[in-house]
Write a structure and sequence with these properties.
By secondary structure, the chain is mainly alpha-helical. It contains 6 helices and no strands.
């Protein structure tokens, strides 16, 4: 007769809650880091542009950057296979790489393609170039997320 040993439900529940909490904290920290990376790559204070000036271009770029970081975090969690420590480390590393790539892409589009973020953020109406740059953020996040998986 073969017997299987199972983990008590309370232990499974506790470990699951711990993992969710740890990933949530790391995810929020990466979202904040992503926001400030975009802030550093753009002229002016991004939070002021969004909150006080209600600039739709700043809001679109920031939102797209956060979506991209979220995709990377979700893919890192998915690929962790339940190994919490390794999953958290991978999420941190992949999240930071994704943030760096997004920042580099913003600078590249500014210099190579000729779409200056400084000019876009000076506009008070949503610009087509902002939509394109926002899509680029999301696509970079998706590419990074798929590379993680």
């Amino acid at each position: 007769m073969v017997t299987t040993q199972s983990t008590p439900f309370t232990e499974v529940l506790g470990n699951g809650a711990l993992a969710i909490g740890a990933y949530a904290v790391l995810g929020v920290l990466l979202l904040v880091a992503g926001f400030y990376a975009i802030d550093l790559a753009t002229p002016g204070r991004l939070s002021r542009l969004i909150r006080e000036e209600r600039n739709p271009n700043a809001a679109a770029l920031a939102a797209a950057g956060l979506v991209a970081v979220g995709l990377i975090v979700a893919a890192s969690i998915w690929s962790s296979g339940g190994a919490l420590r390794e999953g958290l480390i991978a999420t941190l590393v992949f999240g930071l790489v994704g943030i760096a790539v997004q920042t580099i892409a913003m600078i590249a589009f500014d210099r190579v393609v000729g779409i200056p973020v400084r000019t876009l953020l000076g506009e008070t109406t949503l610009q087509p170039a902002t939509i394109m740059l926002s899509a680029t953020h999301v696509v970079i996040g998706l590419i990074t997320a798929v590379a993680v998986v």
